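Table S2 (text version). Query chain:
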Amino acid sequence: MIQYQLEKSAKDDLDKLETAIAQTIKDKLKELEAHPEPHQWLKKLKVYKDVYRLHIGRDWVAVGQLEGSMFRVRRVGHRSKIYKLIER
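Corresponding structure-token output:
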């Protein structure tokens, strides 16, 4: 089992989104916690050190660090812009 934690930057990102989209993202993160094999959903990004992504629907992505059984969500955004927000 994996748990997730939203960092302040991810909470700020969610606050800027439409309510329905933000709720979809939160629901997917809750599904991640309940999924029997959550590591299948998290993919390590090759370009960024120790950064994982979770695709949410077709257009949204949550990125963060995986520390043991904790997924620390750093940023949430549209797939066309999210990777520009991540520090290398």
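Notes on Table S2: The longest strand covers residues 70-78. The mean pLDDT is 92.
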